[in-house]
Each structure stands twice: as structure tokens, then as C-alpha cells.
Amino acid sequence: MRLLLKNALIVDLSEQNFLHQDILIEDCIIRRISPHIVERDVQVIQSSDLCVSAGWVDMSARLCEPGFEHIDTIETLCQSAKAGGFTQVVVLPNTSPPLQSKAAIEFVKKSSQNFGVELLPTACATFNAAGEEMCELYDLHRAGAVAFTDGIRALNHPEVIKNILLYIKPFGGLFINRPEERALTRFGQMHEGAISTQLGMNGIPEIAETLPLMRDIALVEYTKGKIHFSGISTQNGVQILRQAKAKGLPITADVYVHNLCFTDEALTTFDTNFKLNPPLRTESDRISLWEGIADGTIDAIASGHFPQDIESKRLEFDFAEFGALSLESCFGALLAYKPSWISWQVIVEKLTSGPRKILNLPSPKIAENQPANLTVFDKSFSWQFNLENIFSKSKNSPYIGKNLVGKPLFTVFNSCNYD
Amino acid sequence: MPLSTKHLLGIKEISEQDIWQILETAVRFKEVINRPIKKVPSLRDITIANVFFENSTRTRISFELAERRLSADVVNFTASSSSVAKGETLLDTINNILAMKVDMIVMRHPSPGAPHFLAKYVNASIINAGDGTHEHPTQALLDVYSIQEYFGRIQGIKVVIVGDIMHSRVALSNIFALKKLGAEVAVCGPLSLIPRYISTLGVHVFEHVQQALLWCDVANVLRIQLERQKVKAFPSLREYALYYGINKELLSSLNKRILILHPGPINRGIELTSDVADSEHSIILQQVENGVAIRMAVLYLLAENIQIGNFQ
To answer: Looking at the complex, does the CB of residue B232 fall below 8 Å from at least one CB of chain A?
Structure first.
């Protein structure tokens, strides 16, 4: 299969090089890049604002297989990722059984091979993500776990965190934690603020994020270990990170798309598709997150893709589960909801080089005779996100019916199914 | 004139005009329930299900009396005797009841927003009889009715709500109703039981009960409920009585007369001593009587919409 991209803007962030070129791709190899290519027997791709960048990397998606195949499968997850323009996706270890053995890591790596997306498995930091006994982290690292995390279950025991940070340092392991003090969030349904007060709902206070952030940063200073924070959601959280980074500490962070797009105002109708963790905060939090992206405090944008079946969502609000789909709508939502002072290039950076630096992954080159790991998109395409844009087995998307800007057209990676 | 809404989900959602319409209609029904023959035929052919997923005595009886005095057909459903325990979803439960041709649902439920959720998916008039820690609109309506009846106005009346504000649907609905009708509202209670962002609702917070009582014309004293607290935010009922309880001595020290409301049931000796609850300050039993009139008014006005085919 041969593919010809006509007049595509090559978004090469390492070189800060943005040139319109024709690109010929053959068998997943970039064959030619030239201002004007004429070829026969090729599939020609044209779009009004065609762009191509290194394939996008997602920092956090829920893996439902094994254990929750009724919610989503590896195949449907890969389809969602491809539709969203992602070629590599970090998946959480909260499956059943959890990802905490060499065999489980190998299973995830192998099972996504045929779907044109590379799933990057994380492994549990502690056994059963229970926050107590450390897993065999070295063995899991050798099996290919890209990081260690208890995923949706925040790790809050300071001694366990301290030991993990020390233990994984010699082999360059990465620990990911979600800053969430469970003692302050266990009954919470949404952000604690004016809206939760009006709705009579138990709130998730901002300090539930800032307290563990401060604790973990102190532990990083103490151990000289490396940490990545997943799902920053508050203004003060961004400020704490900014100060810690100014000290030169080895800290990185990501933010979920939802928190960049919506606020707690969305909850006034008790729509459970907006029941998220971290919760949707206020407008000033949302703007602070974008500021964190602009000044580099936040290194990556993660989808926070979290499928839930309808039985877990079409319920009274406090009985419904947390989480929403995100992969398919990610880029279009970011461009539609970004403040005007944020450039689309910054968003692409936070989906490409940002996550790759955190994970220490090689950066794909857009150059002749290089293997293709590419995302092809139209950055100005306006479209409405609908049910048929969802590839997940679940349909819990807060973006249904929303007008989005910018659309991934296809990805080229490993297999050449660009449809 | 019927109400501009199909449901009574909360005070936050209804207009000031609708509130006045309910209060004025309740005046007429209060007269009706004080007649020797208390029954009118207004809701003949209307079937109402009282669906209670939480314990309730007075609210359920009050609704049922209101319904029967309007000649509605009434069925009662409580969670303990239901299939809810067998794991049926709320939607399935309600749809089963509606399949038996029920026009209105009066529901009490432990989850905030449960009636709003229901209103989205079913085609019946929903009346919220209390949804967790969110709203209890008919209680707020009967409270403002009682204040209006006593003072002849609501505008400018200073009302303090005392107790566990965080876990109280009565507090929230009262705040919305009183603010809409022009009263000044404050809250008072242990700070661990007051929502951090309560002032965004335009209410003042008093830390000390005496200061609160000195300020107010009306004290709406809430039942202090240990069972609704998932985390114990105060040490004991005994200490609560000591710290925030209202007794005769405290009232006398104010050198002014204030009105005491309580949504019931009272914990005598805890939030109110008996000599306060039974004093001339208190209109607790009038509130209960007004509750029936208010609920008749709400049912009557919402049923009008069903009878004339609005919101179909």
C-alpha cells in the first residue's frame, strides 16, 4: 500500500521546522519528502489544512482486558486510540487481575501488535494496587512495563512511596502517582465549591490534591528519585509543581483533557458523564492548567480515557462510577476549548515530545527512509462529535453533541491500515 | 393558573412567581382542611405513587393526607418492602410503577439529584420529597408559608438556620426559597458541619449561636442527625447540646422575641430543650399543619398541568 500526502504541513517540533511538503509512504516507511511528488498507483490524501506530526502518545487510558471485557477490549481500545490519532498509549494496570506479573505485561504488549497501536503497559507499584507491598518492579521493568503506578488508586503511604522511589532509581524506573488523598475524597462526588454546595453534594476539596503533591515532592527531594504526577486539576496544584520544578527536581506532570475543557458548572444537570476523577474544577483552575501547559509546568496532556458501561453510568449520581471516554474526541476537544493564547503547536507538543520525554521513548523522525510513526490530521476541520465517532464498547462520553475543531485523519504505525 | 413547571424537583429550579402561586393556593387549602369535611374532588382520576427509598414518617403522612384530601388515588411504596433490595435500578422500579398508569411520583431518595435523573428519563410529574443532602422543596415552602403567615411578609425578615447545614436538605431548600423571596439568611452550627462555600449562596455564617439569635427574627433549628454523617464531624450529642443547643435561658438573654421553627422530629434536649420547643416562641405544630396545605397546593397545581395536557 502506497500513500501520498499532498501539501502536508510537517510539524517537527525538535527542529521547529514547519514546511509544506508532499510525503510518500510505502509499507510504513517514509520514502520521499519533496515539495511536489507525482506518483501513480497511490492513495492520495488531501485536506484543506493537512498536517503531519510524530505519532501521538497518550499518558493514561483505562485498560479493561483482562477482566472487564464487557466495558472495553484491547481491540476496541486500539480502535479508539487510532481514531483519536494516537499511535502509542500508556495503559493503567487496574485490570482484573491487575498488571503485576511479567506474563501480564507481555500479554498486553503482544495483544495490541496487530492493531496499529502500541499499548505501553504500566505495572502496579504495589501488589493488587493495595498500597502496601511492593511488586517485583525490576522484573516488571525488564518485561517492558514503562512505569509503575497503582493507577486509579492513589498511593498515599509515605514509606511505601519512599521505598519505591529509592528501589527503582538504579534501573531508571519511573513512578507515577495520582495526587489524591483518599481520606479526603472517599465520599466526594465532585469538586468542592459553589456548585457542590448548591447541589448538596459531597465535595472533593482542592487540598485532596495539594496535600499529596507536597508530600510526594518532599519525598522526591529526600530520595532523589523521579516521579510523574498524573491528572493535575487545580490552580494551587499547578503552582506547587511550578515551584518544585524551579528547584530543578525530577518531576513531571500531566493533565487530563476533560479538566482542560470543562468545569464543575457542567454538573448542574447531574449528568454522570461529567462525573470524573480528578473532578472538573472551576474556571480559574481550568485556565491555570492551560497556563501550566504554556509555561512548561505541565509536560503532557493525557486523555484520561476511562470507559464505563451504561449500567455504571445511567444511575443516581452518587451511585454512578467515575470516568469518561476521551481518546476519540481528545484533539478536537483541546482545539475547541483551548484559550486563544494557546497555540495548536503547543498542544501537539504535549501529545508527542512531552510524553516521550517523560517515558524516555525515542522520538520518531519525519525524514526519508525512516519507519513511519505518524499522525495525520487537519487542524482546522470543524465537526460535531457523535455516537458514531466512538469506537469503545462503552459510550460514556461528555463530548457527544459538542462541536470540535481539528480532526485526526489517520495514523501510520507498524501496520499500514490507514482507513 | 398552573405552574410553569412539570415537576417540583427543587426550589432552585422554580421561579419566584411559581413559589407565590403555591403559597397563595395553600392559603385556600388551609381553609379547606379546617372544614368539618376536609375532602375536595380536585384530583379525582389522578393516581399518585409515594415512593420512599428512605425512612420518613411525617413527610409521607403529610403527602398522603394531602393526596387523599384532594381525592387522588394513592399507592405507597417503601424501599424496605420493595425489589430495590434485590438490585433493581431506580429507573426500572419507577418504570414498573408507571406501567401501572401512575400520573405523579412523590419520591424520597438518599441520592442528591435522583429526582432530576428520573425526570430526564420518565414521563410523569416528579415531586421531590427529599433527595439526600440536596433539597426538600415542600419543607422549604411550608417554612416560608409559616413565616409569611406569622409576619405577613418575607421580604427583609432575618432567618438563621441552626445545626448541621452540610447534611441538610432542609437548609439548602430554605436558603433558596428565602433568598428568592427577599429574606436575609444566615447559618450557624459547628464549622465542621458548614459547607466551605456556603457564602456563595449569599448567606452569612455565625460561629456562635447567641450572636446568631441576637441577629435574627426567625431561627429554623435543624434536627441534628448523626446517621447522615459519614465522617463524625462533632464528638457527641451531649456536647452539641452544650455548644449549639437552644434553651430557655439563652432565649431570655436575648431581650427580644424570636420565632422558632423546626422541621421535626425534634431531639428534645439536644438542639432544642422542651421548654423552648413547647414555648410561645415555637410554631412547630403550625408548620406541620401548613405542610399538608402546601403539599395539597403543589399537587393541585402540578396536576392541573396533567389535566389540561401541558408538557405532554
So the answer is: no
Residue B11 forms part of a structural domain? no
The DSSP secondary structure of A48-74, one letter per residue, reads TTEEEEEPEEEEEE---TTT-TTT--H
Contact A127, A188 (CB under 8 A): no
A288-311 b/e (C-beta count within 10 Å ≥ 16 → b): bbbbbbeeebbbbbbbbbbbbbee
What does pLDDT average to over chain B?
93
Contact call for residues A185 and A207 (beta carbons, < 8 A): no
Residue A156 C-alpha, separation from nearest chain B C-alpha, in angstroms: 19
Q: How many structural domains comprise chain B?
A: 2
Average pLDDT of span A37-66: 94
Contact status of B95 with chain A (Cβ, < 8 Å): no
d(CA B199, CA B202): 5
Strands A50-54 and A373-384: antiparallel
pLDDT at A379: 96
Whether B164 and B274 map to the same domain: the answer is yes
Give the residue from chain B lying closest to A318, CA to CA: B111
Same structural domain for residues B153 and B266?
yes
Picking from A101, A210, A223, A235, the residue whose alpha carbon sits closest to that of residue A170 is A223
Range with the lowest mean pLDDT among A195-209, A229-243, B295-309? B295-309
Q: How far apart are CA A135 and CA A123, in angstroms?
A: 9
Catalytic hit among B136, B180, B281, B295: B136
Q: Are B115 and B136 in contact (CB under 8 A)?
A: no
Total domains present in chain A: 1
Q: Closest partner residue to B111 among A197, A269, A317, by Cβ?
A: A317
CATH number reported for the structural domain that contains residue A199 in this entry? 3.20.20.140
A401 CB-side CA count, 13 A: 3
Question: CA B13 to CA B115: how far, in whole Å?
Answer: 12
Residue A174 has pLDDT above 80, yes or no: yes
Note the pTM of the prediction, 2 decimals: 0.94
> The domain containing residue A99 runs over which residues?
55-359
Nearest to A317 among B89, B117, B195 (CB): B117
We report the CATH number of the domain holding residue B216 as 3.40.50.1370
Nearest residue to A209 (alpha-carbon basis) of A239, A233, A183, A176:
A233
Q: Per-residue confidence at A416, pLDDT binned at 50, 70, 90?
A: very low
Mean pLDDT, range A349-360, rounded to an integer: 97
CA distance A213 to A227: 11
- Which residues does chain B have within 8 Å of residue A316's beta carbon, measured at their own beta carbons? 90, 109, 111, 113-114, 117
Q: Which residues of chain B have pLDDT under 50?
A: none
Examine the domain organization and report whether B114 and B186 are in the same domain. no
φ, ψ for residue B307, nearest 5 deg = -65, -35
Give me the interface pTM, i.e. the ipTM: 0.92
What is the rounded distance in angstroms from the CA atom of residue A74 to the CA atom of residue B192? 46
DSSP class of residue B204 equals E
CA dist., res. A280 & res. A273, Å (int): 11
User: A281 vs chain B: nearest CA distance in angstroms?
Assistant: 14
